[in-house]
Every structure is written in C-alpha cells, then in structure tokens.
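Recall from the previous lesson that a structure prediction takes nothing but the amino acid sequence as input. Here we apply that procedure to Putative ABC transport system ATP-binding protein from Anaerocolumna xylanovorans DSM 12503. The sequence below is the only information supplied.
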Amino acid sequence: MSFVEFQGVTKIYKSGDATIKALDNIHFSFEKGSFAVILGPSGSGKSTLLNLLGGMDFASEGSILVNEINITKMDKGQLTLYRRNDIGFVFQFYNILPNLTAYENIDMAYRLSKSSISSEEAIEAVGLKHRMNNFPSQLSGGELQRVSIARALCKNPNIMLCDEPTGALDSETGKMILKILQEMSAKYNTTVIIVTHNAVIADIADTVLRLKDGKVESVVKSDNPLKVEEVEW
Ligand SMILES: Nc1ncnc2c1ncn2[C@@H]1O[C@H](COP(=O)(O)OP(=O)(O)OP(=O)(O)O)[C@@H](O)[C@H]1O
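The prediction returns the following tokens.
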C-alpha cells in the first residue's frame, strides 16, 4: 500500500514577472519502509519535491498524501507538528550545533518529539556511543553525519528525508552512512528517501524516481536491490 503519494503536484515559484514551474503535475508513490532514491539533473526539482514532502513549502496544485493524510490541507500549526513528529531530515552539511556535544545535539531533538527511540538507542544505532560527549569540532565528517542521522532517528520518524547525505564524504565513509540508513530503514520500517546526484546509489534502492525538467521521467521498483558493500564508486 502507498505510504507517500503525490497526486498531480505542481510547484510554481514566482520571482518578479517570471514564473518557474519546478514541479509539473507529478504523480508517484512510495511504500512504507521503502528505501528510495530520487535522481535527476540540477534544476530538475529534487529539492523542491523534498521540501514539499517535508512540509517546508506549499504545493501550488495537487495533493500529497502521507499515510493517507493530505498534508497540503494542513495549516501552519499542523505542519509544524508533522515536521516535528513525522519527518527526519539529513542534509549534506549536517547542521549540527557547534556548542553542544554529540549527545546533546541528539537529545534536543528527542525532547521535542514524542518518540519511542531514546537518544541513547539512536546514538548506539549509528555506532557513536563512545563519542557521545565529544563536541562537533572533535568529530570527522562521517561522524558528524552519523550524529545528524541519530538526531533524525531519535524522533522515530515515519519518513527520513536525506538531501545528498554522502555529498561531502569520501566514498568509503559515504558507504558507511548509506549502510546505516539502509539498516535503519529495515529495522525501524522507516521510509528513507535520498536525493542524490550519484547514480550508483540507485543500485541499492528498492525504488528509483527519476525527475527531468520538473516531470517524472520514470519510477523503477526493484525486488533485489544491491547491498551497500556491493556497489562501487
Ligand atoms: N525559492 C525559489 N525561488 C525561485 N525558483 C526556485 C526556488 N527554488 C528552486 N527554484 C527553481 O526551481 C527549479 C528546481 O529547483 P530544485 O532546487 O528543486 O532542483 P534540484 O533538482 O534540487 O537541483 P540541484 O540538483 O541543483 O540541487 C530550478 O529552476 C530552480 O532555480
């Protein structure tokens, strides 16, 4: 059954007299617990799609259903709760607060949500328990990304939205991050959605959505995605 469903979604940006159709009447669906990758050239609408699904921006037309609830009908207060309780965000540049320890960064998110996954469990799930009292300046890029995944995980989100999560990392560290995300998706039944320029990542996804010029070019589902260890880049 579809867990995320876009029905005829269009997003138009206005800047001065110009209008830009970033998404043009798109339809697709992802299932609960899927590990999905969104690919497409620069400007094809990937971040716009993520922003709409994450409740950070509004669609111009169409419906976005999450667990059968139409989020395009939510008011600002409902969207705030949706972002807080349903969505975990992982970005390319981590967005970790520098004056808090790894643990404190994670625990702050935990306290804001009504989650069943404790900060301790989340930090253990990303293999960073031994570094929990370190400050961000004492951690590597891969470790910072693990903190940001634990911060998203401790909300026990229905959907994890990842915008180029390996973009700033070397390939080995990037693979480790993808492995954590893949394991998390399997263990917690989290729907993980990764936006990337790296087409190789598509091989480990069970669903691959390709965007082009704001339109869906293809949606390909695979019953046998590769394990992270099996891909080369
Ligand atoms: N806030 C905005 N105001 C005006 N135009 C915007 C805005 N955000 C995005 N756009 C335009 O919408 C189109 C889609 O942008 P989007 O960022 O979604 O693409 P993308 O596929 O994520 O690109 P990239 O891979 O370069 O990040 C582009 O033409 C972009 O310039």
